[in-house]
Structure formats: C-alpha cells, structure tokens
Design goal:
2 domains; single chain; Rossmann fold; two-stranded antiparallel ribbon; nine-stranded mixed sheet
Length: 272
C-alpha cells in the first residue's frame, strides 16, 4: 500500500507573536514544528504500514527550511519526503494549496491512501484535506477518530461530526483527515533521528509542474481568498463574586421560591 501523508510546517503557536498593526502572524517570532494534527496522520500511516505493509511518503509545501519538518517525518516512520518549494507557490490560500498538492499526488500515482490532519493550527480551516480529495476525484472522510478495519482495497473508520458518531467504509484510493483522538504519536528513536539527518529530501519546484499548472492557478495569483487582517480579541473581563456555602444555599432557595411564586414550575399545583 502506498500512503501519502500531508505535512505542514507551522509556527509554535504557544510562542508566536502577532503583528497587530499589520494584522498578521509574525512567523519569525517563534520556532517551527510539524502541525500537531499531522503527527496523528503520520502515526496512522505508520500503524497501517505495520499491519499490512507498504510505503509512506510525506508531502509538504513550504519554504526550503520545511525540509527539516520532512526529516522529522522520516524519523517518525515515513520512508521518504517530498517538498514543494518555489516562490510561485507562496501566498497560497486553501484552494491554491490543495490544487497544487493534488497535482503533486497525481505525479506520485499510483497511490492508495492520502492522510491529513483535520486542520492546521495556524489556519483552522479544515479545508485542505477535503479540497485535495475533490481535485483528485477520490472519496474522502473527514474528522476520523478511529481506524476500525483496513486492507489493500478499503478501510472502515469512525468519525465524529457535531453530536453524531458515524462508522463509514471507504473504497480505495481515498483520503481521510484525522483528529487527535485517533492515536498518540510515538516519539522518534535517537537512531531514527540520526539516520533521518542523512536522508535526501526531494525538492519539487514549479518547473516540475510547468506543463500542467499555470502561474495564475497557484500561489497568491491562484488564491481567490486572502487574509486581510487578523484581530486578537481582548481577554474577557473577569466578573463574579465569591460566596460562602451558606450564602449560596440561601441564594438558591430564594431563586427557587421566586420561580414557584411566578408559577414557572407549577409549584402551586395540588399534586406538587
């Protein structure tokens, strides 16, 4: 089975700062890491490989320094990494990103399964996975919380959407996006981390796609949506007052009596 895992390098969100004047994330204010949800996607791929065998390809789109993220993916179980990196890819929204990723996946065909994290912590749109599947014209299931059954032709998963839990079977090739509930990503072993340092990360630039992608379809030019400004909401005002247990019981009793008097609970009925 050939599994492609979508990986994104994101800022460390607990340390990153925001430029309130420009309304953007100051990506230079913090270090970078693999998007946390993508670690769950990679762990899912590793577990499938351990069960039925196959190959795992980590695929990312970003600046040259994102090859560090792909090396970590290799240390965590991916067999190889591919980085889409070119100035023409920069500034892409979810549509342009998924469009480019889909064409890269087509170049890797045949493939059986694409796995992505449910969203990225620097965007929170949850759009890239499903959009990529649509451009590939393959079935997809989002918000997967459990991998129930898998073989070389299909898989059965559980996904949670709103208040419902659904069990779905999907024929392959297909795409799933996973939540943090699906597993606990294992830490890479030191030996694997040392080996990953020597791994050659393939870098695909726009020239690799110039015969199938036009400049106006990718990057900033191919993005119908743009983030104009990010506003940081002020911290909520702390309101409230401390009560003793006796005061709280008295207050609750007063509220109950008031409700009964106003007949909101039917407290004046004979059978009450």
């Amino acid at each position: 089975m050939r599994i492609i895992v979508l990986i994104k390098q994101v800022p460390e969100m607990d340390r990153v700062e925001f430029d309130s004047e420009k309304g953007v994330i100051d990506r230079k204010s913090a270090g970078v890491e693999i998007n946390p949800f993508d670690l769950n996607a990679l762990e899912t791929a590793v577990q499938i490989k351990e069960k039925i065998g196959g190959e795992i390809i980590a695929l990312s789109m970003g600046p040259p320094r994102a090859d560090k993220t792909l090396r970590e993916a290799v240390a965590r179980g991916a067999d190889r990494g591919i980085l889409l990196s070119d100035g023409k890819f920069a500034g892409a929204d979810t549509r342009a990103t998924s469009f480019t990723l889909a064409h890269a996946i087509k170049k890797l065909a045949p493939f059986d399964l694409v796995i992505a994290g449910e969203m990225t912590v620097d965007g929170d749109t949850a759009q890239v996975g499903p959009q990529t599947a649509e451009y590939l014209d393959i079935p997809h299931v989002a918000y997967v919380t459990a991998l129930d059954e898998v073989d070389t032709s299909s898989l059965t998963v559980t996904c949670n959407i709103w208040e419902g839990s659904y069990r779905k079977r999907m024929h392959l090739p297909g795409l799933i996006t996973v939540t943090k509930d699906i597993n606990f990503p294992r830490l890479p072993e030191l030996r694997a981390k040392m080996k990953a340092r020597e791994v050659q990360i393939s870098r695909w630039e726009y020239a690799a796609f110039s015969d199938i992608l036009k400049p106006e379809q990718i990057g900033l030019k191919g993005s119908p949506t743009q983030v104009k400004k990010i506003t940081i909401p002020p911290p909520p005002e702390r309101r409230g007052q401390m009560f003793s247990e006796e005061e709280l019981e008295a207050a609750l009793s007063a509220v109950e009596n008031n409700i009964r008097e106003k007949r909101l609970t039917g407290g004046n009925r004979e059978n009450d």
